[in-house]
Write a structure and sequence with these properties.
The structure is a single chain. By secondary structure, this protein is mainly beta. It has one domain: Ubiquitin-like (UB roll). The protein has 1 helix and 5 strands, in the order E-E-H-E-E-E. It has a 5-stranded mixed β-sheet, with no helix packed on it. A hairpin with a 2-residue loop joins strand 3 and strand 4. The mean pLDDT is about 95.
Amino acid sequence: MTMQVTVKLFGALRQYLPAGSSFNSCELTTAADSMLEDVLGMIPIPEHKAYLVIINDEKINREDYTSTRVQESDEIVLLPPIKGG
């Protein structure tokens, strides 16, 4: 069984969206029992790139990626770090 999740990438992270994506988002098909780590693995962001993950307006800590289950129609947002000046 599979499900659809929406992933939105902002800033410089947009360059890692799969081909055919809209401006800053894509729909990914994943297994119904997928964890956040599985979904993030479908996007080719280099290991050294820092970013924040927000699911449905809730920030997810990096140590929780392997234990956070994604649900059908979740909106996963990836934000690059914001630099002040």
